[in-house]
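Appendix B. Raw example, untouched.
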Amino acid sequence: MQKLFKLLETKNYWFKKYLAANEAFYLVLQHEPETALEELELFYGNRESLLRIIEDLENKVQKEADGPAWAGEIDSASRTRIQAFVREKDSCISRIVQLDTDIIKQM
C-alpha cells in the first residue's frame, strides 16, 4: 500500500513541476513577450518531458493499483489518503488548464 501512496505523491510532485513551468512561462509572456516567444520551443520541450514522466508514473500507479495488494476492500484511512492525492492532482490540473487557456489568449 505504501508503494501506491509514494507513487501518487511522486506523480503529484511532477504535476506541480509542470504547473510551475506553466506559471513561469506565463509570467515571462506577460512581462517580456518577445523573450517568451524566443523560448517557446524550449517551453514545449520541457512540457513534453514532464508529460512523459507523469505518463510513466501513471502507468506505474495503474500497475500497482491492479496488483494483489488492492484486490480486497480498502480501509477508510487508505481511501481517504487516496482521495486527498486525487484532489491535489485535480487542483493542479485545473490550474494548468486555466494557465494554458491564458497562455493561448496571450499569444
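End of appendix B.
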